[in-house]
C-alpha cells in the first residue's frame, strides 16, 4: 500500500465510511464522530426546518424532512440540502393536513391559556395547566409522527402509530417533551434561537429511539 492509499484508508477508517485498519467494532454513528461538525449540521438542519416551516402548516413536512436529513448524516450516508427539499416536497401534501389540524388545536389551547390567565373562567388555574399540558402533548405527537414519516408509507401510518410509539417508549416520550419545551423556551427568550431549537429537536428524534438498541 503506497502513501496515498494509506492516507485514504486512514480517512475512511476515521470517518467510519470504509474498512477499519484495526480489528474493532465499527462506529455506531460514523457520520457523527466530529462534535463540532455535528453541531454545524444540526444548525443547518434547524435553518432548513425553519425556512420550510415558515407557513406554520408546512412545519410537519419540514420536521420530517429535517429528521431524515440528520438520520442520513449520522449514518454517514449522502445527505445534501437538495435531499432535504426533495423530502419536504414529498411530505408536503399530507403534511399540510397534519399542520392544519395541529395549528387549530394549538390555537384553541392557546386561547384557553389566555382566558385562564385573565381570571374570567372559573377554575382558570387548572384550565391553564391543562392547556400547557395539551400543547406539550401535541408537540410530542408531532415529533413522533414526523420521525415515523417516510415517502413510501406517508403520513397516515405515521399519525396512527403515535400511540404505539409513546406506549413503547414512555421515557423517550418524556425526552421528546423536554426537547419541545426547550425549543419553546429558547424561542421565547430570543426568536432566532428557534433555528437551534428545531435542529436539536430533530436530532432528539433521531437519537432518542436509538438508545434502546444500545443495551
From TrEMBL:
Q: Where is the composition biased (Basic and acidic residues)?
A: 1-13
Q: Which Pfam families match?
A: DUF624 (PF04854)
What are the boundaries of the region Disordered? 1-26
Assigned keywords, A-Z: Membrane, Transmembrane, Transmembrane helix
Q: Give yes or no: UniProt keyword Transmembrane.
A: yes
What InterPro entries does its record include?
DUF624
Span-the-membrane segments of this chain are: 42-70, 91-111, 123-149, 161-182, 188-210
Name this polypeptide is given: DUF624 domain-containing protein
| Organism phylogeny | Bacteria, Bacillati, Actinomycetota, Actinomycetes, Micrococcales
Amino acid at each position: 500500500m503506497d502513501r496515498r492509499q494509506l492516507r485514504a484508508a486512514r480517512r475512511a477508517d476515521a470517518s467510519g465510511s470504509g474498512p477499519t485498519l484495526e480489528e474493532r467494532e465499527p462506529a455506531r454513528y460514523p457520520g457523527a464522530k466530529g462534535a463540532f461538525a455535528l453541531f454545524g449540521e444540526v444548525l443547518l438542519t434547524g435553518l432548513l426546518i425553519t425556512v420550510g416551516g415558515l407557513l406554520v402548516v408546512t412545519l410537519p413536512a419540514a420536521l420530517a424532512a429535517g429528521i431524515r436529513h440528520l438520520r442520513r448524516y449520522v449514518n454517514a450516508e449522502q445527505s445534501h440540502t437538495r435531499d432535504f427539499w426533495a423530502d419536504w416536497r414529498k411530505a408536503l401534501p399530507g403534511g399540510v393536513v397534519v399542520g392544519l389540524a395541529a395549528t387549530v388545536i394549538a390555537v384553541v389551547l392557546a386561547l384557553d391559556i389566555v382566558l385562564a390567565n385573565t381570571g374570567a373562567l372559573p377554575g382558570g388555574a387548572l384550565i391553564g395547566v391543562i392547556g400547557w399540558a395539551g400543547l406539550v402533548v401535541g408537540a410530542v405527537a408531532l415529533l413522533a409522527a414526523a420521525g415515523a414519516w417516510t415517502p413510501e408509507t406517508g403520513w397516515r401510518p405515521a399519525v396512527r402509530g403515535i400511540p404505539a410509539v409513546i406506549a413503547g417508549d414512555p421515557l423517550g416520550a418524556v425526552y421528546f417533551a423536554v426537547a419541545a419545551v426547550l425549543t419553546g423556551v429558547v424561542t421565547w427568550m430570543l426568536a432566532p434561537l428557534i433555528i437551534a431549537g428545531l435542529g436539536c429537536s430533530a436530532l432528539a428524534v433521531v437519537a432518542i429511539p436509538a438508545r434502546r438498541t444500545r443495551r
